Every structure is written in structure tokens, then in C-alpha cells.
């Protein structure tokens, strides 16, 4: 698992359970429940690169849709609505992607 040693398995499981139903994902609640909200900027940058599956330096909409699967392969994909809300919350510069600094800000807010 990508987050081994950074996050507790039980926190990941609880966070995923909390948003198991379609259209129930809230990034602020998820970051708090999974334990990312309290992590250092360095740890958040590491987390960003786990989510940035294609290693482009940005999290694009297709990667964001599969965000929960970064934490557990069996997790659901985000709905289109959840994905768009999540992207809008993190895309501070309006380029349609979330960069590493945008991600760290999104998690800490």
C-alpha cells in the first residue's frame, strides 16, 4: 500500500467507509479522518506523488476520479459530481489540474 508507514490502516478503512456511498465524499472530512490533515508539508508532498499516478507533476481529473483507490484498491471511484467539486476546491490557478502546492494547501485548509 502506498501510504504504509504514513497513515494507519484503521484510519484509512474508517475514512473509506465514511464515504462509501456515491456522492458522499467530502475532501475535508476525508483528509481529517484518514489522518492527512495533521501531516507535515513534506508528508503531504509524498502523498501528492502517490495520487499523481502518471508522474506528470499534476493531479488531473482522471486521477482525481480514482483518488480513493490510491488508499485501497477496492475502493470506489468518485462520481463525476464529486470529482468536479474536488477539482474545483483544489485548482487554485484554474488550469484544470491540482499541483503539489495546491494539494498541500487543499489538505491543510
Which fold name fills CATH's third level, the topology? Recoverin, domain 1
Q: Report how far apart the termini are.
A: 26 Å
Strand and helix order: HHHEHHEH
| CATH homologous group name | EF-hand
**What is the rounded Rg?**
12 Å
User: Which class of secondary structure composition applies to the elements?
Assistant: mainly alpha
Based on the coordinates given, report the CATH architecture.
Orthogonal Bundle
Tell me the major beta sheet: 2 strands, antiparallel
Uncertain runs are: none
Give the overall average pLDDT: 95
Strand order of the largest sheet: 1-2
Number of strands: 2
Overall body shape: globular
CATH class: Mainly Alpha
Quick overview of this protein structure:
This protein has 109 residues and is mainly alpha-helical. It is 50% helix and 4% strand. The protein has a single domain, classed as EF-hand (Recoverin, domain 1, Orthogonal Bundle).
Overview of the structural elements:
The protein is mainly alpha-helical. It has a single domain (9-108), classed as EF-hand (Recoverin, domain 1, Orthogonal Bundle), CATH 1.10.238.10. The chain has six helices and two strands. The chain has helices at 9-18, 27-34, 41-51, 61-65, 80-90, 100-108; strands spanning 58-59, 98-99. Strands 1-2 form a two-stranded antiparallel sheet. The chain is globular and about 35 Å long. The chain starts with 8 loop residues before the first helix and ends with a helix. The relative contact order is 0.18.
Amino acid at each position: 500500500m502506498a501510504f504504509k508507514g504514513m497513515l494507519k490502516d484503521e484510519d484509512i478503512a474508517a475514512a473509506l467507509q465514511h464515504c462509501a456511498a456515491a456522492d458522499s465524499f467530502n475532501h475535508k472530512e476525508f483528509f481529517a479522518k484518514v489522518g492527512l490533515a495533521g501531516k507535515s508539508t513534506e508528508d503531504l508532498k509524498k502523498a501528492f506523488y502517490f495520487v499523481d499516478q502518471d508522474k506528470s507533476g499534476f493531479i488531473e481529473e482522471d486521477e482525481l476520479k480514482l483518488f480513493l483507490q490510491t488508499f485501497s484498491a477496492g475502493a470506489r471511484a468518485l462520481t463525476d459530481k464529486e470529482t468536479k467539486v474536488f477539482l474545483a476546491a483544489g485548482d487554485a490557478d484554474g488550469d484544470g489540474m491540482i499541483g503539489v502546492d495546491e494539494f498541500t494547501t487543499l489538505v491543510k485548509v
